[in-house]
Design goal:
Elements lengths: L8 H4 L20 E6 L15 H8 L15 H5 L2 E5 L7 H16 L4 E6 L5 H9 L6 E5 L19 H7 L9 E5 L8 H7 L3 E4 H7 L1 H12 L3 E7 L21 H9 L5 E8 L10 H24 L1
Parallel strand pairs: 1-2, 1-3, 3-8, 4-5, 4-7, 5-6, 7-8
Helix pairs in contact: 2-11, 4-5, 5-6, 10-11
Length: about 325
Amino acid sequence: MASPADQPDSALFQLPMTFMGLPYSTDAAGAGAAILGCPFDCGTHPFRVGARQGPQAIREQSGLIRRYQSEIADTDALTELGAIDAGDVRLVPSRAEESFDAIEEAAYRLVSAGTVPVGFGGDGSVSLPLVRAASRVHTDLTLLHFDSHTDSYEVDPVHRYDAATQFAHAALEQRVRVTGSYHIGLRGSTTRQGVYARTKELGYSIITMRDFMDRGHADVLDELRETLAGRPVYLSWDMDVFDPSCAPGVCTPAWGGFLAREGLEIVRDLAGLNIAAADVNTVSPPHDINGMTAFLAAAMTYEILLLIWRARRRAA
């Protein structure tokens, strides 16, 4: 074995931890997708603060995800996609406006290069700057949001930003085409009245968890594929759409959510949609159990990357 003195730099220095061992790079030229960590949370929850640690946790647990998926992608799809991990945006949690500006600029540099950014929250508020970035390139951007909450609450004129208003901002700023945009998986208690009515007033469609279960997976997915066909889609997956039994480490858990199998099948059945940008958010490592929420978030991210790979392969 060669002594350390004889080894090249590539053998001696450990590269930064990346999602599934993807190449670390901020050069998006030729990259089909790029992971972008957004380690921000508003810090406004009374006792569940910790989503800022989510990007690192997801990357750590991604070591359990293998590169080959025999049912869908019995090939190294991520290498074929040219996927990269661009690391984390440099920001300061709690400084919302300057952090959002930084996230938007970082994501814009990726999306303007023809790359699909896949953001890691952070809490759900990071969706807003990511949507802003994507909307600068993709006109008629449509939102597909899976969450137990609408995150479209009334905006406080004094404290404008939190993790419950990002999609209200997106609608009011006309960053997304609200007609044909969806919030799916809604359930549980809320901090104020009228949140579903407010979401509908903004123009969004909602499918509650009860609606989803009554209608069934096939019927809902048929509607989504038909409505969103041909449109650029921003896919936001809040991990609290899952039941706490499989995703306990989130900021605002709510019983009665999707099971892991159901969430994975939903994303797989979005095949054919044009995913222009995406995020996976609300993993809170201090509240997780043995990394299981971060592991599930990593699995969801892999499925989202496979969606992007499949779409690009069809278009080639």
